[in-house]
Amino acid sequence: MKTKVEVARNFCKTANISSSSPELTEESYKVVDRLLVNNGYPDPRQFLEFRMENIGVRLSAEQRSVTLKLPYMSEEISSRITKFIRRKKLPITVVFLPGIKLKDLFCSSRPHDKRHCTISSCQIYPKITTERVDCSKIRPIYRITCNLCCQFYVGESSRSRSLHERLGEHLRHASNPTCNSYKDEALAFHYKEHHPGLSPDLMFELLGTESNTIIRKVLEAHFIFTLKPEINNKEECTLLQRFLLQS
Fold first, then answer.
1. Count of Cβ atoms closer than 10 Å to residue 140 Cβ
2. How far apart are CA 191 and CA 32, in angstroms?
């Protein structure tokens, strides 16, 4: 019996908290009454005291809000995001996560180690310009520069695949720009339109890695917005924007 009492108490509490007006609260209590009766509980009127316990109990705006974690970029950007959320009265609490620290960039326990690639005859490794980075990085954000015209592309890999595999796909697209299955790929379009008949000359740079898909997409959008890559097509940017709005 004690368990049933606690269940009824929690039903009444949930009905009260989730209702935004007295009328809706009463309607929610009626739903609770039907649930209790249909599941063999005693007369719902016996639980009236639980309703009285919860009168006036409401979640605060902070308790109702959803937490949104974003990478910290600058004080100005953080301030603009916070002010926008407050101005629109959105139920969102923003948490800005710290980025890479200077000691992580400039310090290493083994600074004289040379990077190496375990894949034989690797075509990607020699083209990576980022120091102490090999092909094994996963979930990367990267920049690909075409040395023939100095235009570049910014992308990320949402799959748990290595940098070698993802950049290898881009290299195949650039090497076979007339292939029908690659017609919608940005680098295939670039080499077909701007460098027809020429072998691709690409340079790869790792901009960062991030396991969280939403944060990685936000970082990609940030780099696209600030660096303004010429090779990224509009459809990719639209899909990225749609993903961020739905997340």
1. 22
2. 64
The per-residue pLDDT for range 134-186, each reduced to its tens digit, is: 788 888 999 999 999 999 999 998 767 788 888 999 999 999 999 999 988 99
Query: Are the C-beta atoms of residues 204 and 167 closer than 8 Å to each other?
Result: yes
What is residue 59's predicted lDDT score, i.e. its pLDDT? 43
DSSP characters for the chain? -HHHHHHHHHHHHHHHHT-SSHHHHHHHHHHHHHHHHHTT-S-GGGGHHHHHHTTT----HHHHSEEEEEE---HHHHHHHHHHHHHTT-SEEEEEEP---HHHHH--SSTTPPP---STT-SSGGGB-STT--TT-BSEEEEEEETTT--EEEEE--SS-BHHHHHHHHHHHHH-TT-GGGTT-HHHHHHHHHSTTPPP-EEEEEEEE-SSHHHHHHHHHHHHHHH--SSS-HHHHHHHHHHHHH-
- The predicted-structure confidence for 52-96, as pLDDT tens digits, reads as follows 444 444 444 444 567 888 888 888 988 999 898 888 888 788 888
